[in-house]
């Protein structure tokens, strides 16, 4: 049977088994459905929680606003020492007190900094004065901060140390036109209010109330409430974002705050990570009290994964067994023969021939492929060896050519620099002295101008041959550029450099070139130098060049 047929049969079996496990995809579909349902549930729940939980608080806020508008209270706030005005204000405020659910109120006057408080226990007292507010005290900073920023309404959880109570206060400014006369309001007992929240709270959600900065104002865990938020620095506040697990979730919730504030009383829902699990955060902005209400809902409570564990385990074992069988069969038929072929190809890459060893389970297509490969690999090896020989020869030739001047076949700059480095190294290691001669052809430009560049090239070739003949085996000759040549000479004899320089300068061995039936005497300007301690190649080139120009200009 061909490998294609075998593979199709095995694929069919796998697809049948995969179909059996396709019900697992329902888990993902179920999660999507449940998440969608939880979002709708959260939207309805948060609006419902707002109505049942915050309605009493909203009522207290409205009453506080009405309380701050009492004309007798405003008149007394302007003249706090006027006994008659104080009595009138006392009568009106005590009549109003019973309208507050906590049967209490407070008054803080700006003009004399006095703080007054009345509840059921103190109503019978003739004097409601409790203490004098002090701007230097941290506990009283809320009073001055509210008037400083002109915040008409402020809700905050704050302990009153003087009264010995912790309440959810609704603070309202007493205004007379643009003038601020003081602060009034009422308070709800924090413990009672929180117990109501916990009792009304859904088993699947956790409700948090915050101000616009995210500072926690109400929460079932009292130790996380940010008391006296208005007087704290930003970094000292207990914020709802600190309840989340990562920075990504904090960023998502902050964006949700912005959207909710732009659309008051509308629910914005986002997914965050809290307490190590994925939760839906539903946020609604309540403009009546300038607070945000946030409900955290744990999605896992709606999706009991544990009920799937037993079935999941059974199907997982079945899938593993099926995959093992498929793996073994596929290995025998396909992967092992291919591994043998791969091993042979790797050996071929190292210029070695290794015949693949195939088992009887290998498919006929693979056997035919291997046979074709063996024929091809033998031919390829032969061709590769032949090509490598040609490449090696060509590389050697290219290396040689790259170091030669194409016109004169002397060393070019690159080739000559290699010898210069070699000579300098021998000088450093063995103190083998050497010299450098810089040669410039006199009046070469005139030859080019008079006879043309073709003749100029011919002259340069003759000069190159002449220099090689003069130097012989004593050194290296290069064409440094244009009509400038350099010679490196080993100083076997102390006068070698001097002798060769003299030959070139004094025409002891003149170079005469016939051009257009005319004999032209080629003359040189020559500068030489010997290596010295501390020399670099640049130092020697500079001295030789300088010496050559001294000779050249002296001739002129």
Automatic annotation (TrEMBL):
Lineage: Bacteria, Pseudomonadati, Pseudomonadota, Gammaproteobacteria, Oceanospirillales
Domain GGDEF: 432-556
Name of the protein in its database record: GGDEF domain-containing protein
Chain ranges passing through the membrane: 308-330
Gene3D superfamilies: 3.30.70.270, 6.10.340.10
Keyword Transmembrane: yes
Keyword Transmembrane helix in annotation: yes
Taxonomic source organism: Marinomonas colpomeniae
Superkingdom in the source lineage: Bacteria
Keywords annotated in UniProt: Membrane, Transmembrane, Transmembrane helix
Matching SUPFAM superfamilies: Nucleotide cyclase
């Amino acid at each position: 049977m061909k490998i294609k047929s075998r593979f199709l049969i095995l694929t069919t079996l796998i697809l049948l088994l995969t179909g059996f496990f396709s019900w697992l995809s329902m888990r993902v579909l179920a999660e999507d459905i449940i998440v969608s349902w939880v979002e709708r549930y959260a939207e309805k729940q948060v609006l419902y929680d707002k109505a049942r939980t915050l309605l009493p608080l909203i009522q207290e806020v409205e009453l506080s606003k009405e309380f701050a508008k009492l004309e007798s209270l405003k008149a007394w706030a302007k003249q706090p020492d006027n006994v008659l005005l104080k009595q009138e204000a006392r009568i009106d405020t005590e009549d109003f007190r019973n309208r507050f659910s906590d049967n209490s109120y407070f008054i803080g006057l700006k003009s004399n900094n006095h703080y007054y408080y009345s509840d059921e226990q103190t109503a019978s007292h003739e004097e409601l004065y409790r203490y004098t507010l002090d701007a230097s005290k941290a506990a009283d900073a809320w009073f001055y901060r509210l008037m400083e920023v002109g915040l008409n309404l402020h809700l905050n959880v704050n302990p009153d140390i003087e009264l010995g109570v912790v309440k959810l206060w609704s603070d309202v400014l007493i205004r007379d036109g643009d003038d601020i006369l003081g602060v009034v309001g009422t308070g709800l007992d924090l413990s009672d209010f929180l117990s109501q929240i916990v009792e009304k709270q859904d088993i699947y959600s956790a409700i948090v109330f915050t101000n616009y900065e995210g500072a926690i104002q109400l929460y079932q865990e009292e130790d996380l409430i940010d008391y006296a938020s208005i007087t704290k620095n930003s970094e000292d506040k207990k914020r709802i974002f600190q309840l989340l697990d990562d920075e990504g979730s904090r960023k998502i919730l902050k964006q949700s705050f912005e959207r909710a504030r732009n659309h008051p009383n509308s629910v914005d829902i986002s997914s965050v990570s809290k307490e190590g699990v994925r939760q839906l955060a539903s946020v609604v902005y309540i403009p009546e009290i300038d607070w945000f209400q946030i409900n955290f809902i744990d999605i896992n409570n709606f999706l009991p994964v544990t009920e799937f564990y037993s079935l999941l385990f059974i199907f997982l074992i079945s899938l593993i067994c099926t995959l093992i069988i498929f793996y073994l069969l596929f290995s025998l038929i396909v992967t092992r023969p291919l591994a043998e072929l791969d091993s042979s190809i790797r050996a071929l890459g190292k210029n070695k021939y290794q015949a693949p060893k195939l088992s009887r389970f290998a498919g006929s297509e693979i056997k035919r492929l291997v046979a074709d490969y063996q024929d091809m690999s033998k031919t390829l090896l032969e061709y590769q060896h032949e090509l490598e020989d040609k490449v090696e020869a060509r590389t050697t030739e290219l290396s040689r050519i790259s170091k030669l001047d194409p016109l004169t076949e002397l060393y070019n700059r690159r080739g000559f620099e290699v010898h210069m480095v070699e000579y300098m190294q021998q000088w450093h290691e063995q103190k083998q002295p050497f010299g450098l001669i810089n040669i410039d052809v006199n009046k070469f430009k005139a030859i080019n101008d008079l006879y043309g560049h073709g003749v100029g090239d011919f002259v340069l070739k003759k000069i190159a041959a002449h220099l090689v003949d003069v130097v012989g085996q004593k050194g290296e000759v290069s064409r440094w550029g244009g009509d400038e040549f350099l010679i490196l000479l080993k100083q076997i004899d102390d006068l070698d450099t001097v002798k060769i320089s003299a030959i070139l300068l004094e025409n002891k061995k003149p170079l005469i070139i016939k051009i257009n039936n005319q004999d032209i005497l080629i003359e040189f300007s020559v500068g030489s130098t010997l290596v010295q301690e501390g020399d670099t190649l640049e130092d020697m080139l500079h001295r030789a060049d300088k010496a050559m120009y001294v000779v050249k200009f002296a001739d002129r």
